[in-house]
Amino acid sequence: MRRGNGNFVFSGGFLSGTHFRAPNSVPATLSEKVYAGFKRDIVHGVFQPGESLSEKDLARRYGTSRTPVREAAVRLQKDRLLRIVPNRGYFVAQITLQVLNDIYEFRTAVECASAELAAVKGASSQVIKELGNLAQVSCRPDDRGGCVRFIEADTAFHLGIASLTRNQMLYQAVNDARSQMERIMLAAIDIHYFGEVPKREHLDILCAIKDRDPERAHQTMHDHIMQSKDKVLGIAVVVPAHFARG
């Protein structure tokens, strides 16, 4: 992390000056490239939960030898997106009810703290405006492309709040949670169960940060995450076959 023109610039690349950009940087090595591609394919549902994956096929897909695939698999297992079973291969992690509860407990801990700290430290009017623009992004359930753009904006919004903490550890924690959330939200599109977008909730969080009110920022983020949890658990009930038990 370094400073630039009085603003924090995260080396991972989200907050640059007062302008927001996508939270993913260009992979520097072949291993990073394979990891990024493999992770993207799991998150976007190219590989389905529980699917068995061959190291040989993965190496062919990503145009590399098996070693970078093996290194990426180890990292993805730590991300809870993949299971490595000795002598059997790789299996895409299931989205279980336990995983869902773990994600939301984690989000509550790190994102409420991020919102609170963001309100303490404040933000420029330009950053508030850009976050407000992200909060305005909407979509229709019958427009998959629009829903994907909303999910991207939703990730950018939450990472933007984390960036305002000027704390790289909190930012990384929120970034890790977003991989799981994007996977869940993209799955919701594919089963035609994408709920209303949380425009009002996002704007309430932003307003509390703008007003430099840490307690309200914490509470509005908490309420937002609980609303999201209710929607996701609703998906698990409506389409139980898509989510594994355990």
* CATH top level label of the largest domain: Mainly Alpha
- CATH architectural type of the largest domain: Up-down Bundle
Main sheet, how many strands, which sense, barrel?
A: 3 strands, antiparallel
Approximate shape: globular
Briefly note the structural class of the backbone: mainly alpha
Strand composition percent = 5-15%
The topology string of helices and strands comes to EEEEHEHHEEHHHHHH
The spatial strand order of the largest sheet comes to 5-7-6
Oligomer: single chain
Q: Kindly give the count of domains.
A: 2
For the termini, the CA-CA separation is 39 Å
| Secondary structure: number of strands | 7
Radius of gyration: 18 Å
CATH topological fold name of the largest domain = Four Helix Bundle (Hemerythrin (Met), subunit A)
Q: How helix-rich are the residues, as a percent range?
A: 55-70%
Estimate the mean pLDDT confidence: 85
| Low-pLDDT stretches | 1-24
Total helical elements: 9
**What do we call the CATH homologous superfamily of the largest domain?**
GntR ligand-binding domain-like
